[in-house]
Amino acid sequence: MRHSLTLRIGPATFRIGSAWAQPIDQLARLYADYPDVDGAIADFTVRLQPTSAVRRWVRPSIFITGDHGLADAAPMSLAHGLLAAEMGMNLQMALGWRRHLLLHASSVEKDGRVLVMTGESGSGKSTLAAQLGERGWRLMGDEFALLDLDSGAILPFPRLVSLKNKAIDVIAGEVPAARMGPLLGATAKGDIRHMVPRADAVARMGEGGMPALLLFPRFGSGPAERPVGQGEVFMRLTQASTNYVALGEPGFAALTRFVAQVPARAIDFPSGEAAIAMVDRLWSEIA
Amino acid sequence: MSAALLVMALRDPATTAALDATGWNSLIAMARAERLIGTLAFRLEGLGVPDAVRPILADTRDDAAREARQAIWEADRARAALAPIGLPVILLKGTAYAAAGLPAGRGRFIGDLDILVPRDRIDAAADALVAAGWEWVKEDPYDDAYYRQWMHELPPMIHAERDRMIDVHHTVLPLTARPTPDAAAMMADAVLITDGLYMLCAEDRVCHAAAHLLADGDLQGGLRNLWDIHCLCEESSERQDDFYLCLFEKAAHHQLTAAVWRALRLSHHLFDTEVKAYHVPIEVDYKLRWSDRAFISRLLARNGWGQETRKALVFAFFVRSHWLRMPPLMLARHLLTKWRKGHRPQ
């Protein structure tokens, strides 16, 4: 492919090829402080290619694919090329990663112990992780938490944090402009802006920690809190994992151990400040 | 860059020692695109590979083992569903190779469950499968009618709980194809694998694979099918001295001589299959014909990013696949119907 870049995020290496320069240039700027792995052997190949020959030039349209792809993936405009590249990497992880149990969750670490937050898109888990990452916690990832099958540790996958709609202004107010990506308006999920994690999150991206608390955050009401039983936690985490079935027995063993050992709470919160106060309190009480 | 790199690695795994990082990235991307990564992982097992490659291959081998386990379970479920109506399950392709532990099955990608049943029992088989939880998936009435009237298999069914597809065949080529293989003879000659599961005999396995590769589709995934043929031939000719003569005899009976001979020429050329040339009782040699070169170019049409190359040639083989399946008038009607429904060749 005409333009390409190799990136390492946590334990995974991606070779990203693109028919256009723009997405690669944007990635290169935002991932500038990540390890230099130029020319390395990659775990996954991501391709951003035109949906048809004409669409390279005329109203450019990106088909996201790679080693793993979805035949019916929606085409994206070149203006959203950075998002396409991020989605391409997520797609490879979701469909192809086998070395850890993949949880669709954000995670942050303090004193070697990890807070895992899982929930549907829009639950506020990304925003909350990003905020905690600016307030004394180490951000480990906003999209995937990697559960180690042998040790039970959570390993980081600190890609760019993807902020949506109202969360953009909340975070942009706290973070220097150099760590913010371009505003991508009117995507399928509304406005999106990427944020580069703090330097310590990138420098320590090989370093995991034992999970100490699991939260199911939900933005929009409350504040309210309830304990979540192990059966419910187990079911919700199997649904939040893209490779639970593919891992077979080792995945089951790792997940049951996680569920048995990590206390879980569901929290509803009306604002970021309220959520942070709840997290601080729960962390000191039960984690 | 072409899939010659992948062919070389499969044929002679030791040659991968000379690959640099770009070479490995290309090899892995094209092997994944051709769904030969599992096969490659087993071919490279025990060889020294770069540290970054080792976990990729290990993951792939685990995936292949899980897929084989799932496929064999699915075959067993079909066996249980068809036993009450007295139908044995004759497995075709990947599931057969995995269940029988054939070298062709090592690391092989397995998609759907393919089984062969007598044509006059096909409705009974479908009813029994529906009763056991499989459901029809084709929603388009034209597609459904087309399958039932002209194809060698029923429209695909999917199991409601296990989400796995089954293709129920009554022969190995579409009814509209020019050759008419003797499906009844194939079923009569089928061999027991284990526990009520059968597969085609050694010669028929190659006939079917060659028919599938060269007398039917558009050579999508052709390298994988050709690798099957290579493994099937190597294994059977080692066990049976006159394997190739028996194969030619069967191929003639199934009207598949041209397909089988071309498959052997291609396999010999690309994978070094140890074919045996004959002068008596028949004349067979393995020199490439001019037309073989087009097939080889098509089979190798893949670049180091895993993308398909040689668009015009790929399209030509797409056209050929339809030409093989249908007489001109029927083809025209079919293409018009599909076009109206919004289908376009890739």
From TrEMBL, chain A:
<dbReference type="InterPro" id="IPR027600">
    <property type="entry name" value="HprK-rel_A"/>
</dbReference>
<keyword id="KW-0808">Transferase</keyword>
<dbReference type="InterPro" id="IPR025662">
    <property type="entry name" value="Sigma_54_int_dom_ATP-bd_1"/>
</dbReference>
<dbReference type="InterPro" id="IPR027417">
    <property type="entry name" value="P-loop_NTPase"/>
</dbReference>
<dbReference type="GO" id="GO:0016301">
    <property type="term" value="F:kinase activity"/>
</dbReference>
<keyword id="KW-0418">Kinase</keyword>
<protein>
    <submittedName>
        <fullName>HprK-related kinase A</fullName>
    </submittedName>
</protein>
Automatic annotation (TrEMBL), chain B:
<protein>
    <recommendedName>
        <fullName>Nucleotidyltransferase family protein</fullName>
    </recommendedName>
</protein>
<dbReference type="Pfam" id="PF14907">
    <property type="entry name" value="NTP_transf_5"/>
</dbReference>
<dbReference type="InterPro" id="IPR039498">
    <property type="entry name" value="NTP_transf_5"/>
</dbReference>
